[in-house]
Write the structure tokens for this entry.
Amino acid sequence: MSDVSGPRAAAWKNIRAALITTGAQLVGTLLLVLANKQGMISDDTTMRGVMVLIGLSLAAYGNRIPKTPDGPPPQTLPLAALRQSVLRTAGWAMMLGGLAFAGLWAFAPRDVAQVGSIVALGGSMAVMCGFVTWWIFAYHRSSTR
């Protein structure tokens, strides 16, 4: 696998990171279920633990977004700036949404966590989509392409 370079290397790096994150989620879930079966923790704690793992995985993925641009390099400097701004904003929004998701499931009452986690992730997605739309229109309005 040492002969892999360029876009293929980046793809393998992303796949490896996704597999590590997935593996951590599976191991964590299995440990929580095992502790539940042994009577160490309740069903509610098991479910909350799994949801916290999901939130932390979303935050980890959000942290990787600006570091892993896909596709060919932009042809102009304004396009490069646009791409980096979009990736940074998407990364921050996803990371904060994932941390809010995990925090709500760890500390909030269950009813609040159920609604709040959806609102947190929905808000992060709205920020990402709104920023992308705003930047696309700003780029197309500018005369320096």
Summary: The mean pLDDT is 88. Residues 110-141 form the longest helix (32 residues). Residues 7-141 form one domain.
